[in-house]
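Z., the sequence and structure:
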Amino acid sequence: MKLPVYLYGHPVLRNISKDIDKDYPELQKLVADMYETMYASEGVGLAAPQIGRNDRIVVIDADPLGEHFPECAGRKFTLINPVIEILDGEKVTRDEGCLSLPGLSEAVPRVEHIRLKWVDENFEPHEEEISGFLARVVQHECDHLEGKLYIDHVSLIRKQLIRGKLHNIMDGKTRCGYPVKYAPKKKK
């Protein structure tokens, strides 16, 4: 089932998500719905806060990026309770976009070498060193679990320059080709 993607300004995107356990109700269905939502929205990753849940669940299918970033080829995985450890390396700046910030992209500095620990949807543990653009995708999605958005990593000047676009998203003036949930209207 396609779920609405929560857009910038919705408070759920700024909350810190909680770990889940094996007893999480209907986890397999939720993961399937998250993949369906991500594909219908033409994304390569989706975190649970983006569908209104502050649970530590992320789905990623970076394979569409594989032509330009070989480390992404064939990479599809579900991250439950992920933990990122930043390894060595300088930050590299590349453009990022987000389903919760439609129509925007900004240059974001991130490290390109991380260690990732997680369990999958069957609660099997995994640990892997990830590099390149795939590390960026993972960091971007895991930021959502900490209540962060990619625009939190850009300069104050850039935030000022996109302020009008951000207000349009919050005010429901941005249209998408996928189901969305706008921020609640402020009471006057």
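DSSP finds four helices and nine strands in the chain. The beta strands are 5-6, 45-47, 57-61, 76-86, 91-96, 106-111, 113-119, 125-131, 180-181.

Let me know what you think.
H.
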